[in-house]
Amino acid sequence: MNQTKGHPKGLYLLFVTEMWERFSYYGMRALFMLYMVQALLFDKEMASQVYGSYTGLVYLTPLIGGYIADRYWGNRRSIVVGALTMAAGQFMLFLSACYFHQVELAKWLMFIGLGLLILGNGFFKPNISTMVGRLYTADDKRKDSAFTIFYMGVNVGSTLAPLICGLVGNTGHPEDFKWGFLAACIGMVLGAAVFQIFKNKYICDPDGNPVGTVPSKADCNTQKASQTGKESNKRTIWMAVGTVLLTILFSVNWNGNGGIFAGADWIGSLIYATTIVMPIIIITDKSLSRTEQARIGVIYIIAFFVIFFWAAYEQAGASLTFFADEQTDRHIGGWEMPAAYFQSFNPIMIVTLAPIFAAIWSFLGKRGIEPSSPRKQAIGLLLLSLGYLFIAFGVKDVQPGVKVSMIWLTGLYLIHTMGELCLAPIGLSLVYKLSPVRFSSLLMGVWYLSTSAANKFAGVLSGYYPEGGVTKTFLGYHVENLFDFFMLFVFMSGTAAIILFVLSGKLQKMMKGVE
């Protein structure tokens, strides 16, 4: 394939499929916290715990889906199964909202729906991201641009979701939440249908061969060979270590001494323990060469820093939602914009800026001055820190209950959007380029595992949002007001950015000419 031509049509099929999946996810997310508080009458703390556990588990199950795809089903089948399972989950949320007056029944239906969404996402998420890279040759320079375009598809769905699902579901009447969940269900069904109809025609490699099909027996035998004898025993040992670690994390938090692992209930403990143990199991596989181990090591190091990015960034669905609802003046003329609509700001900015960033990387790449992937990640973290610094000064000395201009929250989202474009799509591309083919989906699952830990951690950090004049302390840092709260994220993400930038040269050497 001539690399000077446009992107393959398969990229745009994956774009549309992911767009509908993100429409489903973000449509539900825009209503979920409001549904729990306003319809099921959960308090904010309980709603935040459920939200954090759900979003954490959503990014944990890709490990399972990636493994099954690599060993048994292939990417295509996994994507279809995942999409239909998520559609069933959204339908269960629709039923829950239909019976919200019967709180116990509604709760059970909601938790069943969340379980299906978590399971379905595990099959869907790592496999569709992996397929993007397989549309190109190993040395194709368009991959970063392709993942940026794909990521724009993510945000087209994210843009439409709060507007459409919010329009029909966030009316101020609890009985209308069901229509928002139903809209999310319909979006997921559309995504599955589009992919199923066109996948055989467009999802092909540059030579026209189908990609993402059921793994060959040779590939399966290669993986099985790495799981016999001593390797099998070693994995068993590591699984036992993980179980012990899970128990320790839970016990530490049960005694109230969780520290950075605060909030690790059984779900949180499972997420944190898996985040520590699973990467070790993969990188110690005897079938890996030294070069492959070094490249996987780069994935792990960057994934660690990504945890700090998403833990701060995902406040959009938690503490920043409280800020939008309680301390942001949302009046535009005589109309007061719903707080949920702020969740469309970031994806709208992504859709607007993604082509610009794709062009920037291409422009710099042609002149040999494009930053390395690790440095792009560091830039993303720095921009995240600057976004919180911006809003911190906007709320400095503001009293609780006093509303500030929308410019502060809008400015934060703009700066965070630029940081996200430096980090998220580039990270997906990096994982694909560095992963051995036989572990590509599984390592994509590890990448999302870092997001799982980040989302759970985000829920913990959201708990430090100031309320009622109570002083809260995180690792010795006192949070008394909004300025203190936002500065916590400035310090956290800024420190991570500096350290990653210092390490970027070493990481580039470990990658050994992949870029």
From TrEMBL:
What UniProt keywords are attached to this protein's entry?
Answer: Cell membrane, Membrane, Peptide transport, Protein transport, Transmembrane, Transmembrane helix, Transport
**GO terms, biological process:** peptide transport
Main localization of the protein described in the UniProt heading: membrane
Q: What is the recorded membrane topology of this protein? A: Multi-pass membrane protein
Q: Membrane-spanning regions, if any?
A: 23-42, 48-68, 80-102, 108-124, 145-169, 181-198, 236-254, 266-284, 296-313, 345-365, 377-395, 407-432, 444-465, 485-503
Q: Which GO terms describe its molecular function?
A: peptide transmembrane transporter activity
Record localization = Cell membrane
A cellular-component GO term for this protein:
plasma membrane
Q: Which InterPro entries match?
A: Dipep/tripep_permease, MFS_trans_sf, MFS_Transporters, POT_fam
Q: Which Pfam families match?
A: PTR2
- Which NCBIfam families does the record match to this protein? yjdL_sub1_fam
Quote the protein name from its UniProt record: MFS transporter
